[in-house]
Amino acid sequence: MGKASELARAQPLSDPRICCLDLDTFFVSVERLLDPTLEGKPVVVGGKPGSRGVVTAASYEVRRLGVKSGMSLLEASKRAPNAIYLPTRHEIYGTYAERMREIARRFAPTVLVASIDEMFLDFSGCERLYGSGGAANGNGGEDRAGDVAIEGAVLKLTTAIFDEIGLPSSAGVATSKVVAKVASALAKPRGVMLVPAGVERAVLAPLGAVVPRHRSRRRGQAARRRLPYSGRGRRGLRRGSAEDLRRVGGAGARASATSRRAR
Q1: Whole-prediction pTM
Q2: 241/113 Cα distance (integer angstroms)
């Protein structure tokens, strides 16, 4: 049993802290690792332009032209005739995906693979391992410290994936898989977004998302008291106030994200 598993089992659990880790434009990112000249260029993975089949991955540059995953290659070639079209190479992508999973398993005791480029990690009970130590207490301070500790751990995870493999990723942390997945999408590209317990509806309601009812008894004002702290860490940690989160619809939602720009 690893250290993360031992400490997770050795203390009572508070709110669950679930992370959704998603590799950004995974197939395109791997192709760019293999051919650095593709960096910054519009890239479509899936096959030859105009051929039968669908787009399996599209770079951010080509998404601005309306090309997206699942679109027919015929339609993609009309919208982005000058893009670079590449065949899908599942064997190679699978190798990189497994390397990413090996890194993830170093950080959390429970890792659930959702797809080739997405997984969920359960950090519940790992707060002491990553530094909260229960030092902060009162007025939601313990939960706040736990959030800081786990958010920092997830940031280290995404950094390790980039440093060791070269792949960019984004992550969301919340009390459920559904909310964590939405947060990971809001954090793109290359960010980490935390949705603290008790503010899920305030964050996601403007997005039209269906938010599962939070089971914790610490809702309402008690939960919102965890938010008004702020500060910047070595990697640009930013947190929004409760008012910021209630105004989400873009910039407000991202105000609680840990943003890590490409180097």
Answers
A1: 0.71
A2: 33
